[in-house]
Specification:
Structural class: alpha+beta
Distance between the termini: 147 Å
Number of helices: 27
Shape: flat
Number of strands: 47
Largest sheet: 6 strands, mixed
Length: about 1200
């Protein structure tokens, strides 16, 4: 590839070229090179910026005349710009001396094709000007204008520039105009030259089908354009033209139209060891011009030109990557003509090309310092170097196998796979070898096995070093295995065994998994272990178990995994032989494991997989527990005796339980085994782990529900035997559903049926024994929210067997124990606890352990466990407020009940109890009274009259009992009743119907109001899927039965649903009760507006609801104030006064009331307040007494008549005026 640079010619008068001034200008001009930031526009309008452009200034006289050479040359071989310099001070001198010189030069240059020109006028600034810029403008004389008039034929382009000297020596701005016009001229000249050359190329391409057309001539023509772009610094355009040439060559190769090339080539001395990227090692261009170049040399030259352009762009990673691909692909093409080459020519060429490329790239890498700072590039570059050295090592494998230095077995035979060859050794039996390769180290390796081993080891270690630098750890480990295999071939068994034994641990790491190579290393480690005669210990056991697993991760049909890795098995081994080997290995594994003291755990072993068949467990029926059918797949090619199998499930509380199967013989493929869980569970659970035991080896597969793929089948490769396809379970198979068992032991958690606000909070546990006759059961309850349960204070509430029960109940601080329980027995007991968490939701975990008695044999069954996570709401759905009114010895209390949640609550009954000497009465209840429904907006009111004949001297507490149930519980109970009646014996179907109806009720609230008023539950039939059509008839019957009204107060299920809330209510305590009454001393039928009415105000005081310290002799100073209503009454008299209040005393006041208008008027009110504080028997003040005043006449209205009078009116009756 020619090294082209831009040429610029210069000319000037002879005396000017010989002057010191020109030498100084020439030196200053070099300081502005290379030219920077030139903009070139492509044919499609894209602007490319040339960062730097190297140029050569040459004298015009030194250039040869343009000839008519038939050999296409680079555009840059001729000047792109011609310049003429002269110095002139005045126009007269220019006219007489320089004008003809300039015109003659212009005429000679104008005849040159695709070349621009520029006239440079050198002027001396006025010596009197001091500033540089001022000097430049001061010396602008008419000379420049005359030069422009003479030479600028094209008025659009100015080809004249002015250079002030010696100002330009110090002032950079003085060069601006000159440099700008110089760059514009170069770009313009280059564009026109490129356009002309492209026309020539297009003309040549159009003549391809014309006889006599020559590809080599076309190649040189198009390459000249590529080298021109390269010289201009447009490397992408240059590379594009070489790629187009390569495409044209491949097209000719496919068409088998290559008469311009000689033979294949590769037969010249040194062809096998020459550098791939050296274009000067042969006269390639001359060979192309003479049509004598071989295909071998042409392909190398064309590829090298492309790589050199990439290297100039510092795309070193692309260079080394493309070189690797070129070597592999071109070697495959050369192998078709391998007989024309000397022995081991291809191996030597690949070996030499790979190493020479690394050498040349390393030299370039030292120059490209910017790449050293990019860590990702360094890693990839090292890895690519490792691949090339590895490729060269493969050639040593081939040579070694052919010479008999290496066996034709893995890992050495892997070299055939990379090239696609099927070759048998040619010189292993002593056949004569005649090779003319020229690579020195390979020549030495052909002569001596020791030299071969030394070269093999050094090359492998070099590849390991590069792989390690590039973080290709598994490739480096693989090469370590190759060295161990070489030691094994050379009978260095101890060294080979140590290496083989250490490598599998590196491959088993999750980041570096490579099952085929790990299997190969393990196989060689086991083989070396046997040949050394070492006893089988736990280390051997680990290797053997790992090898068995890897045997299940490869496909024995092709023995190929990945791009270039094959399995370590000999392809001549039959399936029966392999089966016998695996069986023998399993026997040894069991024998070694039996001798182990501890259990050996293995995680995620791929030999077995456990998958539920349907994901739905079956109830045992005659006992507590359930069965689960599981497919156990044995991926080994022989029978395996497993001592125990277990599948562990976890639920919402993450407390695992297991389905277990004891010893089983698993044949190759699927084995259907039934597992059993003796504990009682119901719901949907996810598979948390699976385990199988082989002797003392425990194979575990652990699964987290937040992970992705299921661990119950952790391997994803094809099984060792193609007849056993691998099962990958779906997401649904990760879950197992256990249906509820109505006859199993069950413990329910709820709030007590009676809740008292001033007592410790408690929960109620209801134990159902179901089918079980229990010898004993222990129950513990905890809460993950921190609530503490006081098990020692548990109280037995109810026993369904009543007095005939022989059950013993024992509450201890750590557990509650019950003994001697019968079947179908229900026992409920309460357990107090600490304050519930905020939010009103209590989470509780109930754990029970029980032992049932076999009814037939009367022998205890194995102890079972029950664990359940329960959630209940501790919030009471009601709130109660009270308003009290005193009337003498009677107290009237009004209780207002409302709901605290969105749930409707039915109030069934209320009752007020307590109080010493109180008579409590309420309005009479009739049979027609319907229980009320309360909501947060809809309240219920209840009145109670409390009468006390004796004075109250102590504070007392009453209790309001509210009997209620929520509408949701009522509806669910009705649904449960009707569904159970309709689907008797069909629990699963009944549960599905109930869930469907509840879902419908929650989605549509239109039924609520009708149900509240009529007790009729009118529903539409919910839509059913195709799989639920069998439920249609039963659902319709349930819906029809719900339409019949049912008494809300006489429901047979009321006792189970009713909840009692006991609310403590303090009996009001009052020191002084004042009763005000106004007596009118007038006829009530003849009171007129404005008429004075005498009245007597009586204030009666009572200490009946008095104080603890109150005595009958107590006195209080009181003050009354008559509240005057200025719109109704005018009050005259002592409207305000003081009096002394004693028990059962009356104070009277005479007043006069004047009604201000007629109508029914309310009498004025009187406000009474104490003036003194309460004094006890200790004569100490206890603060002001409490007082309440009520008006006896509060409901009385006084009819005031309008005042009577007479008025005379004269009315005219008509007549004469």
């Amino acid at each position: 590839m020619p090294n082209s640079r831009i040429k610029i010619s210069y000319a000037a008068p002879t005396n000017f070229l010989a002057s010191d001034q020109w030498i100084q200008i020439r030196t200053a001009l070099d300081q502005h090179l290379p030219l920077k930031m030139l903009n070139w526009k492509t044919t499609d309008g894209t602007v490319r910026t040339i960062q730097e452009l190297e140029v050569d200034f040459v004298s015009l006289e030194s250039l040869k005349d343009e000839g008519s050479s038939q050999i296409p040359s680079s555009i840059l071989e001729r000047p792109l710009m011609n310049m003429y310099f002269f110095a002139c001070e005045d126009s007269e001198t220019y006219r007489l001396t320089f004008k003809k010189m300039v015109k003659d030069w212009q005429t000679s240059i104008s005849t040159k094709r695709n070349q621009e020109w520029l006239v440079v006028l050198v002027v001396r600034p006025d010596a009197r000007a001091s500033a540089g810029a001022a000097r430049i403008f001061a010396m602008r004389a008419p000379v420049l204008d005359k030069v422009k008039t003479d030479i600028n034929v094209d008025k659009k382009k100015d080809r004249c520039a002015e250079l002030a000297w010696p100002v330009a020596a110090d002032d950079v701005t003085a060069w601006t105009d000159f440099i700008s016009k110089l760059k514009d001229g170069i770009v313009s000249s280059f564009e026109s030259a490129v356009a002309a050359r492209q026309e020539e190329i297009a003309r040549s391409e159009s003549q391809q089908q014309v006889p006599g057309w020559n590809f080599c001539t076309y190649f040189i023509l198009k390459e000249s354009l590529a080298t021109s772009f390269e010289g201009m610094g447009l490397l992408e355009e240059a590379l594009q033209h070489y790629e187009e040439l390569e495409a044209s060559f491949f097209q000719a190769l496919r068409d088998k139209n290559l008469p311009w090339f000689g033979n294949v080539g590769g037969t010249s001395p040194g062809d096998d060891s020459r550098s791939l990227l050296d274009i000067f090692q042969k006269p390639y261009r001359e060979l192309i011009l003479n049509n004598t170049i071989t295909l071998f040399d042409f392909r190398i030259y064309l590829f090298a030109c492309q790589m050199i352009l990439l290297a100039k762009q510092e795309r070193l990673l692309d260079v080394i990557t493309k070189c690797h691909l070129f070597i592999v692909s071109f070697a495959r093409s050369l192998r078709e003509n391998e007989r024309s080459f000397t022995t081991f020519f291809l191996e030597s060429w690949i070996y030499s090309a790979s190493l020479n490329i690394i050498k040349q790239c390393d030299e370039a890498y030292t120059q490209f310092t910017s790449l050293h700072k990019i860590s990702s590039f360094t890693l990839q570059y090292s890895a690519k170097r490792g691949e090339l050295v590895h490729l060269s090592r493969y050639q040593l494998d081939k040579i070694g196998i052919h010479l008999g230095y290496l066996p034709n077995k893995p890992p050495f035979s892997l070299c055939w796979h990379t090239s696609g060859e099927e070759i048998t050794p040619r010189f292993a039996d002593g056949q004569p070898l005649n090779s003319k390769i020229t690579r020195d180290e390979l020549i030495a390796a052909l002569r001596s096995k020791e030299e071969f081993d030394a070269l093999y080891i050094s090359t492998t270690q070099r590849a390991i070093e590069y792989y390690a630098e590039g973080k290709r750890r598994k490739f480096a480990l693989r090469l370590h295995g190759d060295l161990a295999a070489l030691d094994r071939c050379r009978s260095n068994l101890q060294t080979a065994h140590q290496t083989f034994a250490s490598l599998p641990a590196h491959y088993s790491a999750s980041r570096h998994k490579w099952p085929p190579l790990e299997a190969f290393m393990l196989a060689r480690a086991l083989d070396s272990h046997t040949k050394l005669g070492i006893g089988k210990d736990n280390t051997w056991l680990d290797s053997a178990v790992a090898f068995l697993g890897l045997c299940c991760e490869a496909d024995d049909q092709t023995n190929v995994i990945g791009e270039d890795v094959i399995l370590p098995q000999d392809t001549t081994i039959t399936p029966s032989q392999r089966k016998e080997y695996i069986m023998s290995l399993l026997d040894d594994v069991r024998r070694v494991a039996d001798g182990s003291d501890d259990e050996i755990q293995k995680r995620d072993h791929p030999s077995f997989s456990l998958v539920p068949t349907t994901g739905i467990a079956r109830l045992a029926g005659d006992r507590d527990g359930s069965f689960l059918d599981i497919v156990v797949t044995n991926l080994l090619p022989c029978d395996v005796r497993l001592d125990r199998l277990e599948m562990e499930l976890s639920g919402e509380d993450d407390e695992p339980f297991s389905f277990v199967a004891n010893g089983s013989l698993c044949t190759p493929g699927d084995n259907y085994i039934t597992f059993f869980c003796m504990d009682t569970h119901a719901g949907t659970f996810h598979i948390s782990s699976c385990s199988v035991w082989l002797s003392k080896i425990r194979f575990d597969w652990v699964y987290n529900s937040n992970d992705g793929p299921s661990p119950i089948s952790p391997h994803v490769s094809t099984p060792l035997s193609g007849q056993y396809p691998l099962r990958l379970p779906s997401t649904q198979q990760h879950l197992v559903r256990i249906p509820p068992d109505e006859d199993a032991l069950n413990i329910k958690l709820a709030l007590p049926r009676s809740i008292q606000w001033d007592a410790d909070p408690a929960v109620m546990l209801e134990l159902h024994t179901g089918r079980n006759v229990l010898q004993d059961v222990t129950i513990n309850i905890t809460s993950p929210t921190g609530v503490k349960f006081k098990l020692g204070d548990a109280e037995l509430l109810e026993d369904s067997l009543g007095n005939s029960s022989s059950t013993s109940f024992l509450a201890e601080s750590s557990q509650v124990s019950l003994k001697n329980l019968k079947s179908q027995q229900v026992i409920s007991f309460s357990i107090p606890h600490s304050a519930p968490p905020a939010g009103g939701v209590l989470l509780a975990t109930i754990a029970a352990s029980y032992q049932a008695i076999d009814i037939v044999s009367a022998m205890p069954q194995p102890r079972r466990k029950l664990r359940a996570l329960k959630k209940i709401s501790t919030a009471v759905p009601l709130q109660v407020s009270v308003m009290d009114s005193f009337r003498g010895k009677t107290l009237i209390s009004k209780f207002t009940v409302s709901a605290t949640t969105h749930l409707q609550v039915r109030i069934l009954d209320t009752r007020l109890e307590g109080g010493n000497g109180l008579r409590i009465s309420a309005p009479l209840k009739t049979s027609r009274r319907v229980p009320m429904i309360v909501t947060p907006q809809r309240q219920a009111h209840f009145l109670y009259e409390l009468t006390s004949e004796k004075a109250r001297y102590e504070r007392e507490t009453l209790y309001l009992h509210v009997l209620y149930r929520t509408l949701r519980e009522e509806i669910e109970a009705r649904l449960e009743k009707e569904v159970s009646k309709m689907f008797k014996g069909q629990y699963e179907a009944g549960e599905r119907v109930k869930a469907k109806l509840i879902e419908y009720l929650a989605a549509d609230g239109g039924w609520v109001q009708q149900y509240i008023h009529t007790q009729e539950l009118v529903l539409q039939q919910p839509s059913l899927s195709s799989s639920e059509n069998e439920l249609c008839e039963g659902m319709i019957a349930v819906i029809e039965s719900l339409k019949s009204p049912q008494s809300a107060s006489n429901d047979s299920l009321n006792d189970k649903m009713q909840q009692r809330l006991i609310i403590p209510v303090d009996l009001p305590f009052l020191h002084i009760l004042c009763a005000v009454q106004i007596h009118l001393n007038a006829d009530l039928d003849s009171i007129y507006a404005g008429q004075p009415v005498p009245v007597r105000v009586e204030i009666a005081t009572s200490f009946h609801w008095g104080s603890i310290q109150m005595t009958k002799e107590a006195k209080y100073s009181m003050r009354y104030v008559v509240q005057e209503s200025v719109t109704d009454w005018l009050v005259s008299g002592h409207k305000r006064g003081d009096f002394v209040a004693t028990d059962n005393s009356t104070h009277s006041v005479e007043l006069t009331l004047v009604p201000l208008h007629h109508g029914e008027l309310v009498l004025p009110t009187v406000a009474i307040s104490p003036l003194s504080t309460e004094k006890g028997t200790d004569n100490q003040s206890h603060g002001p007494p409490s007082i309440e005043t009520y008006h006896v006449h509060a409901a009385q209205r006084i009819l005031v008549l309008p005042r009577g009078g007479r008025t005379t009116f004269v009315v005219g009756m008509g007549g004469d005026a």
